[in-house]
Design goal:
The chain folds into 2 domains: 50-246, Rossmann fold (3-Layer(aba) Sandwich); 250-375, Cytochrome-c3 Hydrogenase, Chain A, domain 2 (Irregular), CATH 4.10.480.10. β3 (100-112) and β4 (115-123) form a beta hairpin. It has a 5-stranded parallel beta sheet, with helices on both faces. It has a two-stranded antiparallel ribbon with strand order 3-4. Strands 6-10 form a two-stranded antiparallel ribbon. It is globular and about 65 Å long. The chain has helices spanning 5-11, 16-29, 37-46, 62-67, 75-82, 124-131, 147-150, 160-169, 179-183, 218-231, 243-246, 257-261, 272-276, 343-375; strands at residues 51-56, 84-88, 100-112, 115-123, 137-141, 144-145, 154-155, 158-159, 173-177, 196-197, 208-211. By secondary structure, the chain is of the alpha/beta class. It is built from 14 helices and 11 strands. The structure holds iron/sulfur cluster and FE3-S4 cluster. Iron/sulfur cluster is lined by residues 250-251, 254, 256-257, 260, 279-281, 285, 287-288, 307, 313.
Length: 376
Amino acid sequence: MSKTIWESFKEKGISRREFLKFATYVAGIMGLAPSMAGEIAKKMEKTKKPIVLWYHGLECTGCSESFIRSNAPYVTDLVIDVLSLEADDTLQASSGVMVEEGGKLVYPTLDINGKKVSVEFNRHVHKIIEEHKGEYILAVEGGIPLGNDGRYCIVEGKPYKEVLEEAAKNAKAIIAVGTCSSWGGIQAAKPNPTNSVSMDGFTFGKPLIKIPGCPPIPEVITGTILHLALFGMPPLDDQGRPKQFFGNRIHDTCYRRPFFNAGQFVEKPDDDAAKKGWCLYKIGCRGPTTYASCGNLRWFGGISYPIQSGAPCIGCADKNFWDNGPFFDRLKGVVLPNVEVNADKVGVIAAGVTAAALATHAVAAGIRHFNNKEED
Ligand code: SF4
Ligand code: F3S
């Protein structure tokens, strides 16, 4: 835990050259110029591996599933060499009392099958909280149920909200990973029977970064954690999201945008227009109101994203997701272009689409190049 990031790399026998290459990848994922790689390397030489505690509330674990698929940088590099990930119920091999070590917490007597049992947990995570007050990053996945005194999510034998409160009060900064911890998510959708809420009410004055998405793109998660670890808080928008990843609407970077501008729309998911790749607005696309990086970063190392696969964006990073449906109903209030389609225009559109496709290819190729280099 007391090692710097560079020391951790060195210990694994990674050369200085490879380390600098990694710094270039890190610059890319944080949206910085490659020329910043030297400065990032210097930071990593001096910065101790930041301690991260990753908590889980009401959720499907999809955000962790996304996180472990980061390949720019690979999450193994991140978790083993860059971060000191001290607790994560999903990723750690053991759980409960199996992760005990030091720190002593005595819990009230439990009634198990009519027998009174005094349960004492000595959990590693509590030792970390105690010894590193104000130093660790708390990453939170999932919503927090407040209904029925928080009994809809029990951790360590008590309501999750109490466990979370202890970790949040003593954190340096908090990252809400995913739509559930950012906005409340599916459990907070109407009628919200568990009275679930987002992290907004659990910050206790600590800085909060929101990374919404169901799930968020892996590189957005890793890029945000890296920015916080190396440079402190990233610039945030008025809703607490990192501007470098949430500064554009899906619609602004969509390669189908020329079809929208030309008034060429898919009317049904399987019509001829769908086969031609026209705009999905009329079958419910939420791209015009959703802020996320799916159109430029894409998923799986830049391979694709919902719109590229033929499905409209359902606004999974939006504040009112899941109550923004029905999903395939047309979004209201979007001003449609007033155009007449003719052969000339289609030619212009085709050129626009080609340019957009080339730009996309460049981004994806950049990521692939990065990955191949990594394997060299
Ligand atoms: Fe792309 Fe959807 Fe906008 Fe059409 S409405 S251009 S498919 S984001
Ligand atoms: Fe979600 Fe829309 Fe991206 S559905 S994954 S924000 S394209």
